[in-house]
Amino acid sequence: MSAPRIIEQILDLARWAPSGDNVQTHRFEILDEQHVRIHASDTSAHCVYDLDGHASQIAFGALLETMAIAASEHGWRMDFTRQQRAPAFDSELIFDVAFTPQPGLQPDALIPSIAVRAVQRRAMRTRPLSPAEKQEMEAAAGPGYRIRWLETPGERWQAARLMFHNAKLRLTMPEAFEVHRRIIHWGVTHSPDRVPDQALGVDALTLRLMKWAMSSNWGRMATMNTLFGTWLPRLQMDLLPGLQCGAHFVLQARQPLRGIDDHVAAGRAVQRFWLTLTKLGLFMQPEMTPLIFARYIAEGRAFTREAAVQARAERLRPQAVELMGGENANAVFIGRLGAGPAPAARAVRKPLAELMLR
């Protein structure tokens, strides 16, 4: 097979890497037969969950790791460098990727998991994870990381309760409302560039109410919150799923993440962890907002114009820190996982042609 065709196959598989809210803000530019440039823009300018760009940087790391795994199928090794740019341009990252044939390189066992990896927001089975499963996932994350498992009934209740309370921040914050309205794809089970409404994990009535509220401005949503409260969607999307899983987990870095490159490296670990649990027949749902909002509070960052929401986030921070393992735990990623049927609805990806720069 020709080298250009191999590169296209690698990129076609790499496009299945996780992308926050399925926004896919990266673009590929093929420079020559064995070199690709990735133009990656974070969502800090318009997403309250990514104001410091770290969530996007982790996603870019996951993309790079997926490229490395995909390249191994052809006996190619992947290396990359990030172009150093002025601080004003940190929201737009450029990665130069080089592929090199490496005799004897075996296809990575995670290749079959790339395209089937998905987010499961609905109930999972509560069977405990086996020691062998946990050991394999811990090894996949790599020596620079460790896993804090929350798997007893009491620990799962602690995590589910935090997610339930934290969800009120999402649902009563106008900045989050704008994100949700932009990224939900209504009336579909699969979406190439957003999140399908059928994948949200709520019943038909709640879904209709959500769609009605989001079809107008923030005022309508605020009115619905006042009249009906937020307990029903939080119950269905956070509390019950938080109890109905095998475990919650916190991926912790052994050293503090100092900058962009550390977050990109963490994203590579996250992707290997996620693909490994997929290979084991498990599913996962990220639970990142407690970590993100706790970090904003620690940094003194005002992330909403609603003073009551900011104050509620400050009150919730000690619970989030405890869940993550303490102030110096260096939490990178939080989620819940377990066995169960595959999700019937999921985000897919844009065709490779739409992700290419010519």
Your description of this structure?
With 358 residues, this protein is of the alpha+beta class. The protein is built from 11 helices and 12 strands. Strands 1-2-4-3 form a 4-stranded antiparallel β-sheet, with helices on one face. A hairpin with a 2-residue loop joins strand 1 and strand 2 (35-41). Helix 4 (153-171) packs antiparallel against helix 8 and helix 10 (289-298) crosses helix 11. The longest helix is centred in the C-terminal third of the chain and has 20 residues, at 260-279. The two termini are 22 Å apart.
Q: How are the SSEs placed, and which strands pair?
A:
Elements: H1 3-14, E1 26-32, E2 35-41, H2 54-72, E3 76-82, E4 92-101, H3 131-141, E5 145-150, H4 153-171, H5 174-183, E6 184-185, E7 190-191, E8 195-196, H6 204-214, H7 218-228, H8 231-243, E9 247-253, H9 260-279, E10 283-286, H10 289-298, H11 307-324, E11 331-338, E12 346-347
Parallel strand pairs: 6-8, 7-12
Antiparallel strand pairs: 1-2, 2-4, 3-4, 5-9, 9-11, 10-11
Helix pairs in contact: 1-2, 2-9, 3-9, 4-8, 4-11, 10-11
